[in-house]
Structure formats: C-alpha cells, structure tokens
Amino acid sequence: MTQTIPGLHHVTAISGPPQGNVDFYVGTMLQRLVKKTVNFDDPGTYHLYYGNKQAEPGSILTFFPFVDAGPGRAGPGMASAVAYAVPIGGLNSWMMAFAEAAIDFDGPTERFGEQMIALTDPDGLRIELIETDRGTGDLAAGDDTPVDGGFHSVTLWLDAPDRTARLLTDVFGYSSAGEETDGGVKRHRFQAKGHGRGSAIDLITSNAASIGRQGAGTIHHVAFRAENDDVQKTWQEILRSQGFDVTPQIDRQYFNAIYFREPGGVLFEIATDPPGFTTDEPMETLGQALKLPAQYETQRDRIERILPSISNPKRTTT
After folding, report:
1. pLDDT tens, 256-274?
2. pLDDT tens-digit profile of 82-109?
3. What CATH number does residue 19 fall under?
4. Is residue 318 part of a domain?
5. From 53, 84, 142, 245, which residue has the greatest number of CB atoms within 10 Å?
6. 86 within a domain of the structure (yes/no)
7. Domain limits for position 72
C-alpha cells in the first residue's frame, strides 16, 4: 500500500441549541470558532466549525445544532468519543479549571500508557483530553489562545471490529498499536504513519447493552484527510475496488468530500485539505460573520431571520 491516510480531517456531531454549544467549545474548551455557516441540506440550521488557532485539518470539530434535537445515545455502529491531544503535564491545569468551574470529569486514568481525563459536553458527547508527547501548543486552561494541539483520536464502538480493523490496516495504511481491556470494554488502537494530528483510531467492543440512536450528543460522521483532489480520487478508486459504495465528490465549500459506510456501520468521509477555511474570509476574522454557500446567498435575509442569534461565549474555564 503506497497511498496512506495521514489522520483525521474533522469530526461532525449533532447538538441541541447553538448557544450552549458555542459557550462550551469556545468558552470552556478554548476552541476557536473558525466557521459559522449553515447546513447544506437545511439552511435554517447552523453548521458550526471549531478548531485550533490556524483552523488546521485534524483539529476541526463541527456541529449541526438543531434547536429541537432529541437526545441521542452512542452505541454499536457509531463513533462514541473524540479526544484532544494535550502536552505532557497539561492535564493538571485543565483539571483545576474544570473543578473551579464545577464541571464534572472522570479521571485521571491511564490508557495505552498515556494519562487522560474525560467529560461530556452539554448534550452528552464524550470529550477526552489525553496527554501525549505528540501534543503541541500551549494547552493550559486559562491561556488566551485556543487549544492548538488538535485531535488525538476518535473512538468507534463496534459489535464486530475485525473487518473495520482490516480496512484501517490493509487499505488506509494504519498499524496495530495495542489492545487493552477495562471492565467490559475491549479497546484496540490503530495508528497512522507519521503520528500527526488525529492519527489514532480506537475500536472498542463493550458488554454494555446499548442501542445507538442519532440525536443531540452523538457523532454523525468521521472524516479522514486527503491532501488534494487527486489523492481523494485515488482513494475513491481504491475503495470502490474493495467493494465499498462511495459517493461522487461533493463540494462542501471549504473542502471536497466523498462518503461511504465502513463495515461496522460508521459513516466515513475523506475530505480534502484545500481550499480551506480562508477561502471566503481572512484568517484574522474567521467565524465572526455568517458565511453562506453560494446557492443560499440570495436567501440571506430570510435565513438570518430564521437562525437563532448567537452571542459571545461565556468563558467557564479561567
């Protein structure tokens, strides 16, 4: 396998009302709101993008914030958690900040030799912070800069992970990086070459009886990186040759995307790095103005009346 996936591009989830989502990810998790746009299929709903200071692939967590979304629940066939990379020693300040803000968290515990803590966002999505020597940037809570380390990993909850594991190793070029069992949860880690942002994928099986349900607090899909359109086209051909039903390329304004279901049922995307989030506004003012896809620009007045207002986030970690 000469072509390999370098890691995650973004993760997209579903939330409830947008204000609480912004308050948590900007005000608590110190992410930068890098794009405020709308759902391509439902322009009366925001699509919010959070990331590091430079809005780099591998740091982008996006949300469809549906005002009337019912609660979701992670289960087999779904991504169940997303983890950020924290430099060694960086967890202490986060734990102190969360404690001072009365935000509950679990841990610290150890996973594959790395210290970690976990908490849930206002809608119940599991967010993990994992210390790693691959963590970059100043991730101390209370700093005036966003969390710049990007993703560490994402967790996929599967009933039968073997075929997904073969997709990661035999097709994507990942390697097995260990197995652990904690209680009734068996976890198998896979690592992309290069150990960059979002380069780890964990596959878990669990004894817990749970039927997954999409809704607020659940992950909708997981997107992997392709450096450009040519690389993405190569992946499209490779996946189709392996029997996967892959969509045509879809223009998502800030990247081009192809989609398919992996064997365990999780929706996968492969997204291009270009054109990036500065294609319609400068880096200095990312996320400040509502940006609309070209097909909706003539409807701006109506869309702006429909969308709930979003105020500056309330900071809860200091």
Report:
1. 999 999 999 999 999 999 9
2. 999 999 888 999 999 999 999 999 999 9
3. 3.10.180.10
4. no
5. 84
6. yes
7. 8-306
